[in-house]
């Protein structure tokens, strides 16, 4: 990353991007003066105020989006304080973590926020990771027999497996290697990350080739997928990672910044406009190539 891009990410107008950059690109500790100052600015910002309001709404998906936002920004439960704990446990109690297809991403965000020390979170993670299939992925959770007949053999769901990849990568970054890690990595590397095993020109899921952001339970972009594999130790020079970088760099502009190709109509948090250069995608892209 050249200095011009770094300075762009460190813009005072986006303390949420700046905090994540300091903590995960620069790898500075929480007690570093620049991290502490940035965190203070973020906690006093309008963007944080909006996140907190969303967290305290009654609807489970509002709480889900707020938790995702705080995790993406690089905050922890200790940073947020009493405002978050009760809301997190209310969400867990009311849903049992079963947020449709969104459970693995919720668990990843809770790990990132520092909740892995809670038995209820750790036990759930241990339980769901045991569901890994022989092909290294995770199966569809639908109870609709037209989609997921339990009497028939099904391949893993690529969309759900990507969420598990982000969860396992986050655990790895925190020093926890899970039993399913190698098999999960192999699931993607044997496909050059994105493609069908029976046709290495056809993507498993089209959205994976773009830079969809913020992540949605069934829509996660190339920048986060490649970042997770790099976090899990995949070598940049490998065939799979080179294939991944080729896809990712199709969204790279001449100035070294990356485009946001798609997003939800109502984003979990304001992350930028589709079709424009994007700080979040750019940050992930460079972390993926470190």
State the main characteristics.
290 residues; mainly alpha; 14 helices; globular
Written description of the protein model:
The structure is a single chain. The protein has helices at 3-9, 15-25, 33-43, 46-55, 60-73, 77-80, 82-95, 103-113, 119-129, 158-173, 181-189, 222-231, 239-248, 279-288, and strands at residues 195-196, 199-203. By secondary structure, the protein is mainly α. It has a two-stranded antiparallel sheet with strand order 1-2. The chain contains 14 helices and two strands. Helix 2 runs antiparallel to helix 3, helix 4 (46-55) packs antiparallel against helix 5 (60-73) and helix 12 (222-231) packs parallel to helix 14 (279-288). 51% of the residues lie in helices and 2% in strands. A hairpin with a 2-residue loop joins strand 1 and strand 2 (199-203).
């Amino acid at each position: 990353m050249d200095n011009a891009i770094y300075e762009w990410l460190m813009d005072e107008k986006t303390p949420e991007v700046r905090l994540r950059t300091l903590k995960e690109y620069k790898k500075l500790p929480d007690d570093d003066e620049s991290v502490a100052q940035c965190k203070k600015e973020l906690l006093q910002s309008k963007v944080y105020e909006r996140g907190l309001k969303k967290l305290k709404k009654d609807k489970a998906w509002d709480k889900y989006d707020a938790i995702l936002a705080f995790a993406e920004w690089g905050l922890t439960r200790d940073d947020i304080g009493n405002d978050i704990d009760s809301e997190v446990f209310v969400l867990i109690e009311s849903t049992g973590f079963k947020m449709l297809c969104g459970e693995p991403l919720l668990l990843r965000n809770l790990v990132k926020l520092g909740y892995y020390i809670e038995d209820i979170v750790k036990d759930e993670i241990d339980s769901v990771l045991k569901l890994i299939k022989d092909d290294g992925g995770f199966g569809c959770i639908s109870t609709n027999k037209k989609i997921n007949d339990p009497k028939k053999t099904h391949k893993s769901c690529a969309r759900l497996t990507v969420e598990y990849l982000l969860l396992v990568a986050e655990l790895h970054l925190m020093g926890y290697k899970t039993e399913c890690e190698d098999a999960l990595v192999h699931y993607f590397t044997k496909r050059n990350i994105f493609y069908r095993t029976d046709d290495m020109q056809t993507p498993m899921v089209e959205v994976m080739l773009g830079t969809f952001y913020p992540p949605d339970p069934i829509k996660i972009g190339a920048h986060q997928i490649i970042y997770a594999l790099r976090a899990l130790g995949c070598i940049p020079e490998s065939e799979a990672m080179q294939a991944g970088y080729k896809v990712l760099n199709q969204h790279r502009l001449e100035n070294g910044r990356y485009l946001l190709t798609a997003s939800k109509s109502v984003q979990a948090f304001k992350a930028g406009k589709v079709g424009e250069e994007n700080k979040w995608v750019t940050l992930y892209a460079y972390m993926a190539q470190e």
